[in-house]
Fold:
Amino acid sequence: MAETAQNNENSKRITLTKGDRRRVWFHSWFILANFNYERMQNSGVCYTMIPAIRKLYKNKEDRAEALQRHLTFFNTHPYLASPIFGVTMALEEEKANGADIDNSAIQGVKVGMMGPLAGVGDPLFWFTLRPIIFSLGASLAISGSFIGPILAFVLWNLIHLVFTYYTQEFGYNTGMKITEDLSGSLLHNVTHGASLMGMFVIGALIQRWVSIKFTWVYARPKVNGHVHPMTLQNSLDQLIPGLAGLLLTFLCMWLLKKKVSPIVIIIGIFVVGVAAHCAHII
Structure:
């Protein structure tokens, strides 16, 4: 009897087939088709997940809730988003089959993974593979061969497509292993660890991505008969290099926590920056 009940339960289980996952992979090609400056790639993520959501959720309200779940902020390297989609599909599959997975767990895994993978994708694809492949194509084109640009185009897209497909499958299989231990602490530990890693990577990149240079001269002391202008930037660099960029990042995080629209923050930074430049402060 117990075996029969188990068989009936398995027969009712909704499972994403390889065909379903291929359709998600195809949709992921268009992740940047509707990029926006408020939630970045969120609409592309939502479009990518549509084939899986249609298969997993038959109820209109459940589908709407799932789509809404994937319209939150998302931004990572477009090729390294594939393993995240794989893990997300696995979590959605378990949720659709009755597992106790809340929206915050799915979102936490996505957010935790997107930061570290973004840091990996740029050096690997934009700064290593792309220069090598297109330099090869350019060298052939310079020598008079029309094969050069064709070879570069085919080779680049072949690497891209193969990489995204197999990393999505890897993410899906890994996600299934995570969901097997839902009764334990594995999902919590993965979510927590991924979030910590994401914050670490983002924190390390603040110095590189956020730059504020103060040009305001507040003193002109003379040393050995020569005037040495002292700027606010020099004083801050002696205290903590990159302090202004760090403080600006913390301010933006605080405003986002207060539900201030990212568009308002962007416009505010632009206006303040232009005004400060005109006043010779930065």
Observations:
- Residues 12-202 form one domain.
- Confidence is low (pLDDT under 50) at residues 1-9.
- The beta strands are 217-219, 222-223, 226-227, 230-231.
